[in-house]
Request: fold
Amino acid sequence: MKLSFDCDRGSATKAAFGLILLSVDETIESEFRPLFDQEGVSLLHARIESASEVTSEKLMQMKARLTHTAALLPGTRPLDVIAYACTSGATVIGSDQVASAIQATHPGARVTDPARAVVAALAHLGVSRIAIVSPYVEEVSDALCRLLEENGITPLSVGSFGQAEEAVVARISLQSVEEAICEVGKDPEIEAVFASCTNLRTMPVIEACEKRLSKPVISSNLALAWHMMHLADLPTADRGPGRLFAT
Reply:
C-alpha cells in the first residue's frame, strides 16, 4: 500500500540554527537545550574534530576543518544562523575567518561565535570594564584579553583555573565556578563578569552570581545563545537566565 502525504515547512517555522561544537565539548548541548526549546525553532548540531588539550597551536588546527564540518549541517532548508561554539578557537582563528569558512558552504547564513557574541552582549548591556573567569592556560587567556581590548573592552581582573585539558574543564564544579565569578568580580570598578569557555558549566549559577555581585554576569554559552537569537530576529526576553536576557 502506497500512502499519500503532504509536505509543510517542517519544524523550523520561525528559525533554523546550526551549531558547530567541539568533539570534546560535554556542556553546551545541555545548557542550550532549554533556551532553544521553542515551538518553530530547530537547532541542528555538527561536531568538529578538536584536541583534548587547549593550546593556540591545536586550536588553530580547527580552521582547516571548519568548511567540511559546516557542510555536514543539513542544507535542504537555508539555516538562518550558524554558530561555531568555541571561544578560544574563535579568538585564535579570528571571527572573520570563521565566518568565511562556514559561509563557503552556507552562504546565506549569518555566523557568530562566542568571541563575537560576548562583544555584542557587553555592548548591549552598555558595559566595558569587566572581569574574566577563564579555565585556560595563560597563552589562551592572554589572547582573549587582547581580543577584548581591541574591541574597546577593558579586562580589569582575570582569574584562571589554569587548565589545558577539556575533560577537566567540563568537570569543574558549579560551586567552584560561582565562587570564582564572585571573587574576580567583587571590585566596584568592575561593571560585569564574563565566564569564558563553552565547556565550562555556568547557566545554573548566572542568576545567583548576579544577585551576589549586583552586576551582569555572562558566559560564553549565554552570550552565544543570545546572539544567535538576536541575529535571527527572535525575541530574547526571558528566554534565558540573567540580565542579558532581561533587557
